[in-house]
Prior knowledge:
Order of helices and strands: HHEEEEEEEEEEEEEEEEEEHHEEH
Shape: elongated
Number of domains: 2
Strand content: 35-45%
Radius of gyration: 22 Å
Amino acid sequence: xxxxxxxxxxxxxxxxxxxxxxxxxxxxxxxxxxxxxxxxxxxxxxxxxxxxxxxxxxxxxxxxxxxxxxxxxxxxxxxxxxxxxxxxxxxxxxxxxxxxxxxxxxxxxxxxxxxxxxxxxxxxxxxxxxxxxxxxxxxxxxxxxxxxxxxxxxxxxxxxxxxxxxxxxxxxxxxxxxxxxxxxxxxxxxxxxxxxxxxxxxxxxxxxxxxxxxxxxxxxxxxxxxxxxxxxxxxxxxxxxxxxxxxxxxxxxxxxxxxxxxxxxxxxxxxxxxxxxxxxxxxxxxxx
Length: 288
């Protein structure tokens, strides 16, 4: 069971059952050209998406294509320029919210598959359409927060499949339900951490990961949490050997830091009460 996902993912499936029924009822393909059906390499496929973000679900649906109402979840079209109308819907339990439909002019290529996608971003109706193979955005605006530069040294970790025992054994302050459980404060900035028994592996997470997961602030907060921890370790001259980003649903959920020596013992001195923060460290938080 993953640190951030399987329990919440299970609940998301239960709470969003009404949304699932609505999606299933729209399954199928709408052919938008006349004549005989063509081979896949002669047409472009544009498809809806269904994304789960912990206890909420978001769908991006094709409402219209070249002026024609679409009730299926997939469109088959000839190569060239087309007009598409996409709508974003947000599900949380029995709550359903719909954003304003967005209209785009797209150019599609034969043999390519495209997906309409979106993120609620705390109420912002963010929609984009991308090529599934290349990831290229052909319409809309996909806001992406990239991992910090140091994280390129490590392999990306799937937050959903990660546990307190795999791929690292985190025996200090780690919960299967919420990941890092120890709150520390560095110059007024709160971070959640967990660590291995020897303190050489540290899990760093956004202290408000649950609420921030519903908005575009989550990945930035995860990056800022890393920078806060790095400042402390740098001040204590503890070398960071490798940094690996934890990701799910396009978000950066946190980082795993592999250290040359025990750094977790140092971090534990930074109590959740800012008044108790050690005065010996010159570390200060710097975000990006």
